[in-house]
């Protein structure tokens, strides 16, 4: 091998599993002779081949790392996102641009990704008649805070007028910029789940919207996308599959153990758990008890899903379960939480909370009997 080569960077990339992870070595320079005796896990690849793998991704194919694309390919490709210079953005894979926007998300995070999809060949969607919805550009989750609404407006003004907007769920850090979209492009079409729209309300989005449930196909020029129903984080949570590159835009959460968790919840119910606290304490017994409150919301969604599939045991009372989801759960959780801390003052508070829980249970039974 001859020629001048220089190591620019070595990147340990995130593991997407279940296969072995891929790390990227970025080398710049001229290579006059191919080196064929590489380890089995490594290969030389031309820029053209790398771009083809990114643009025509298939399940099971080789994957090109993010930094290889940004460093090697972006220098020859103009981005489809003409955002304000004040907004950093990243296009990966081709056709999908991420714009991190300051938002009211939870610490330690400070931004929520605004996703922009545009045609990569300038097509305007003229061949999209067989799709559920079509446009020249798509925005996903415009949820930035008011301090960067001007930058969001600049971005929207740079996009074609045939604009689709998808909201993955109703949390504020994903919808706070909807008013800007509405003001800058009154003809934009909002796509979201009905449960999400019910929570957004007309005060945030006052023009027409289209409800999606999952499976709908969307066309953005030469880009094909498919809506994915992914309840769990919220009951109306949606994802979006970018078919061209086999890339999933997940909103907030993409949880790998959802089915295993649901199976463990069903097993705890079949073993006699009747209340929300019973199910949480058995299913999340290995989890810090301070996290049982957010876990309880997950359990409620799974129980609703199991009920919709008619998988709940006949002796399980959904009415009693729902009654146990309020004060009853909080009091029993407080007892369990303070007991795990085990100081005398905490145990005294635990006893008081336990007494209140018993009183609430007796009162509920008395009301039912009368």
From TrEMBL:
Matches recorded under InterPro entries = Metallo-B-lactamas, RibonucZ/Hydroxyglut_hydro, Sec-metab_biosynth-thioest
Where is the Metallo-beta-lactamase domain positioned along the sequence? 125-284
- Swiss-Prot/TrEMBL keywords: Hydrolase
Q: Does the keyword Transmembrane apply?
A: no
| SMART domains, A to Z | Lactamase_B
Keyword Hydrolase assigned to the entry: answer is yes
Q: Which GO terms describe its molecular function?
A: hydrolase activity
The record, for CDD domains, names: metallo-hydrolase-like_MBL-fold
Q: What is this protein called?
A: Hydroxyacylglutathione hydrolase
